[in-house]
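Quick one: Casein kinase II subunit beta from Tritrichomonas foetus, structure tokens please.
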Amino acid sequence: MSEKKKEAPPPPQKFPHRIVEYDGFKLYAGACNHCPKDVTPWIYQFCHKKENNWFSLVQIDYALDIFNCYGFDYYVPNLLLAKEMICDRHCRLWSYITDEDVKAIHDQAKILYGLLHAKWICTIKGLSQMKRKIIKKERYGQCPRVCCKQNALMPVGISPVPNRHGVKLYCSRCSDIYNPPSHKKYDGAFFGPAFPATFLITYPDRDYRYSFKKFPYQIFGFRLSPKGGMSPEMRALPHSTNNHRDDLINDETAKK
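--- reply ---
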């Protein structure tokens, strides 16, 4: 008996080049080496959104370098397609991607951009962009401590792993961190824990940690120890300072 030949699977459906509107973005779906003229690049669309004004503009050449994406495939399954969406350089595979797949890749592209952003802001160009946001525009607000004298805050992440902690705000004077406004719900991994130290090493004139003075813990001018009592140098022995006590002791001895 002659074996039946297996039928070849049907070729994948090819879609025309189109624009998919999703999440306030206009996503170009199709093979291209550069973003078409009638479509704004993905990075500009992301950074020019009002809710994303804390992010800096990552250069396309930096995002294209696969070395900068090392290890991100654990958090972004479709790493290559997400990177192509960010850089607006699509391979031929994009002609066979459905609209639902484009939306899923866009969601992963936002995570990838955030992870790239945490690395980018620790480079020379990224630090320069963040300095403008921190100092000139005071984009991240001021420290609520009175003794910090309205020092500008900077973003920081507690963990480099996504979906663990939200972004916090670091003060370079009191070295403390604070919660951001309630409407700023960024992932802390998109800014990373290394940014404040890198920023202060690069710009040491913004490091006020050694000039920070706490409000004095004192009563009527006498400083108290952290445990609540008077500090040792402020304590005085009764026999050396309290002459009235010595007089009382002498009077009681004389009566006896």
